[in-house]
């Protein structure tokens, strides 16, 4: 049997400090927590209706400026609503069909929310007519904020969709894509919660045995999710928040709260098993596991905070949601749980739901009686450390091999193909791509401001048409911003409008966002003009987004690395371990990034997972996935390192401490990873491709980190570095002694540890 008392001093620490605060009146603490949760339900109600479905563009970029200016000057140049009119075999040029088409255009133009309408029957533009002449388009713009557009679309779409006299009408366009995306995400999130909650509860019962112990982490997770919804509802009063962030709220709320609660409840039960009374057991738990939870929450929050460095509100939204849910999960674990554990005491083990398995357990009791808890993980750790070079090289090689597909990544923009193939907005846009001439959605638009004359525009258009990769430049020189139905501009906008503005449309030879179209954007911007020219369009948005992310990504990575290095140093007192943590955590993400490209870009398994491959990855998603997955990886890393540090401080035995840490946390980390992966897979059942990629990708990263990196790579690397793992310069060690936090808190083996370091074996001795 293991020597349980090795971790527990003869005199358990009395309640003091934070323990006294949260356990002095446990019933009052729980009552206040319940009141907070009820208020959060009220404050967070309706948050999904206030979230937006865009936010991928860089708001200060040239393309964003041009897009917004075009919306003011030429509302009909930026349509976000498309009516796809099917003539039902008669042909769009049939007089009766044409009359029906013009009538639809007039009805749509009469709506007060519509600021511009263009149709095939009014312009005879070939781009608005299908090549078989069986269908034609009516393009319009709904003005206003995202919320106003959604409300107008709720009214307009049912009025025009379906049979309209002789024709059949389907609704598409960017506004309808975003509207369907928003409603789909809300439905998918509700389904994911229905999947994740019961499955998580079953897994928790399997881990703890006790139904009471299993319900505690679930309660903490629900409180964190509801609290974060209230926070997001408040943030929407001041800025845009992406609806995708709500998926992260559910995933991290359940996942991290369960992680933290697992760690605390597990340690509390260990203290009880060692003979401690409930109050001293809670004190010891908060002194050890509680500090680990605090460190873990800070490291995860630091990773998510890096997304504040990017201007896109899509990424910032995940920082809002992620940091809020991490802090609330940690807060609930450090406030609600201690109060509940004091009240429950030994009843935390009540309602054992595994009684049905007891006959089987009796048969194996004799075999397991002599087996120490976590014996399998301890044996694995010893095996890995005996063959450390082999395991280190093989594991690193395997992870690098899994990540190789990411070298072929191609970045793109999110479009209607994020929706399921059966969604009307997706089918309309796909039909336009397949059946209409040109490259709908791939045009590059150039806004000319500052009073360009007709001769200047004609010369500029001629020079653009000579650029390689240009099919045609469209836009008559007389197309000025005069008398538009746009809202009245402010003084600066009025000055520009009074000077005159025009726009040209450049049709590229390539696809909307391929390399040639992106190159063409740069070539157009390099053409000298006597007036101000701003370029937008799908390819321009992608170019600007990539530039912004490329500029900010090194700073974000540096911030994550610096905070991680500092926090792990404060936890361990070593300068080697923080470097190992950063490098191994980054290595653990290779499989996720390789799988993202192989599956979601290249389309392998697209039929199994039910999505449409676009041949590219939305540019901001890898940044998001890195920040989230890196933070979760550090979460498990802190759990493991804290137990290793605690044992090393007590004994000074480096190898024994590594084995001890793996033995004590291996099962816990695996259970936490499986539960978090279940939650992420539930999110991954979404019908939105980006959400599916986020959920399944992070689930893979979490499992790889817990089952490969923490059990194989970390023990191997720590064996190779030997006791030098704990090295730090004298001044930094003095800094840690003064400001660092330790997992222990009682007496440590500082003297024997330092003696052991002086007699340490060579770093690479195996």
Can you tell me about this structure?
- It is built from 27 helices and 11 strands.
- It has 766 residues and is of the alpha+beta class.
- The strands form 3 sheets. Strands 2-3-1-5-4 form a 5-stranded antiparallel sheet, sandwiched between helices.
- It is elongated and about 90 Å long.
- Mean pLDDT is 83; it is low at 1-14, 364-370, 476-499 and 743-766.
Low-confidence stretches: 1-14, 364-370, 476-499, 743-766
Counting H and I runs of at least 4 residues, what is the number of helices?
A: 27
Q: Characterize the quaternary organization of these chains.
A: single chain
Instruction: Report the average pLDDT across residues.
Output: 83
* Rg of Cα set: 30 Å
Percent of residues in β-strands: 5-15%
**How many strands appear in the DSSP assignment?**
11
Tell me about the largest β-sheet. 5 strands, antiparallel
Query: Shape from CA axes?
Result: elongated
Query: Whole-Å distance between the termini?
Result: 29 Å
Helix proportion:
55-70%
Task: Write a compact overview of the structure shown.
The protein is 63% helix and 8% strand.
């Amino acid at each position: 049997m293991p020597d349980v008392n090795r971790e527990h001093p003869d005199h358990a620490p009395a309640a003091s400090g934070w323990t006294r605060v949260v356990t002095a009146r446990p019933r009052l603490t729980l009552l206040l927590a319940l009141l907070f949760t009820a208020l959060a339900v009220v404050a967070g109600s309706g948050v999904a209706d206030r979230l937006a479905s865009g936010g991928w563009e860089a708001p200060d970029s040239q393309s964003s400026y041009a897009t917004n200016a075009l919306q003011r000057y030429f509302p009909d140049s930026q349509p976000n609503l498309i009516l796809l009119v099917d003539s039902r075999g008669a042909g769009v040029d049939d007089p009766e069909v044409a009359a029906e088409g013009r009538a639809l255009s007039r009805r749509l133009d009469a709506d007060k929310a519509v600021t511009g309408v263009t149709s095939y029957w009014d312009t005879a533009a070939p781009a608005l007519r299908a090549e078989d002449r069986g269908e034609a388009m009516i393009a319009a713009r709904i003005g206003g904020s995202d919320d106003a557009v959604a409300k107008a679309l709720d009214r307009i779409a049912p009025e025009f969709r379906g049979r309209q006299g002789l024709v059949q009408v389907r609704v598409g366009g960017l506004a309808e894509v975003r509207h369907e995306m928003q409603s789909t995400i809300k439905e998918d999130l509700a389904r994911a919660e229905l999947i994740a909650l019961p499955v998580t509860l079953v897994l928790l019962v399997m881990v703890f045995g006790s139904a009471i112990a299993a319900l505690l982490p679930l309660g903490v997770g629900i409180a964190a999710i509801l609290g974060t919804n209230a926070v997001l509802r408040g943030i929407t009063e001041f800025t845009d928040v992406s609806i995708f962030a709500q998926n992260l709220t559910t995933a991290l709320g359940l996942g991290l709260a369960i992680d933290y609660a697992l760690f605390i409840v597990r340690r509390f039960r260990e203290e009880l098993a060692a003979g401690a009374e409930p109050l001293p057991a809670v004190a010891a738990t908060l002194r050890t596991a509680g500090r680990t939870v605090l460190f873990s929450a800070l490291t995860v929050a630091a990773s998510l905070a890096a997304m504040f460095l990017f201007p896109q509100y899509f990424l910032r939204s995940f920082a809002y949601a992620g940091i809020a849910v991490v802090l609330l999960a940690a807060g609930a674990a450090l406030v609600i749980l201690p109060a509940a554990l004091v009240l429950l005491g030994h009843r935390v083990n009540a309602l054992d739901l595994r009684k049905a398995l007891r006959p089987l357990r009796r048969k194996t009791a004799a075999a397991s009686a002599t087996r120490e808890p976590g014996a399998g993980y301890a044996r694995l750790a010893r095996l890995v450390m005996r063959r450390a070079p082999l395991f280190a090289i093989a594991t690193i090689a395997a992870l690098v091999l899994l990540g190789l597909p990411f070298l072929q990544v191609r970045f793109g923009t999110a479009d209607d193909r994020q929706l399921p193939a059966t969604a009307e907005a997706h089918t309309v846009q796909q039909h336009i791509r397949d059946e209409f001439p040109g490259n709908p959605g791939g045009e590059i638009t150039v806004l000319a401001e500052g009073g360009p004359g007709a001769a200047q525009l004609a010369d500029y258009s001629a020079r653009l048409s000579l650029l390689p990769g240009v099919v045609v430049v469209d836009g008559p020189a007389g197309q000025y911003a005069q008398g538009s139905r746009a809202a009245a501009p402010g003084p600066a906008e009025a000055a520009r409008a009074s000077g005159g503005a025009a726009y040209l449309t450049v049709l590229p030879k390539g696809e909307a966002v391929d390399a040639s179209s992106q190159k063409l954007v740069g070539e157009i911007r390099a053409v000298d003009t006597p007036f101000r020219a701003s370029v937008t369009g799908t390819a321009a948005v992608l170019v600007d987004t990539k530039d912004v992310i490329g500029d900010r990504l090194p700073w974000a990575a540096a911030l994550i690395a610096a905070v991680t290095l500092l926090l792990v140093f404060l936890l361990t007192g070593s300068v080697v371990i923080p470097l190992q943590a950063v490098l191994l955590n980054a290595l653990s993400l290779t499989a996720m990034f390789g799988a993202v490209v192989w599956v979601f870009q290249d389309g392998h398994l697209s039929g199994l997972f039910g999505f449409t491959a676009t041949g590219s990855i939305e540019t901001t998603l890898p940044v998001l996935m890195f920040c989230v997955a890196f933070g979760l990886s550090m979460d498990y890393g802190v759990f493991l390192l804290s137990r290793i540090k605690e044992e090393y401080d007590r004994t000074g035995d480096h190898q024994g401490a590594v084995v001890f840490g793996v033995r004590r946390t291996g099962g816990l980390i695996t259970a936490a990873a499986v539960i978090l992966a279940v939650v992420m897979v539930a999110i991954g059942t979404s019908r939105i491709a980006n959400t599916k990629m986020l959920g399944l990708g992070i689930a893979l990263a979490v499992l790889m980190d817990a089952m490969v990196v923490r059990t194989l790579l970390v023990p191997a690397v720590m064996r190779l570095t030997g006791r030098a793992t704990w090295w730090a310069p004298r001044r930094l060690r003095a800094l840690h002694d003064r400001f660092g936090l330790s997992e222990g808190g009682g007496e440590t083996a500082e003297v024997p540890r330092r003696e052991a370091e002086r007699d340490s074996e060579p770093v690479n001795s195996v």
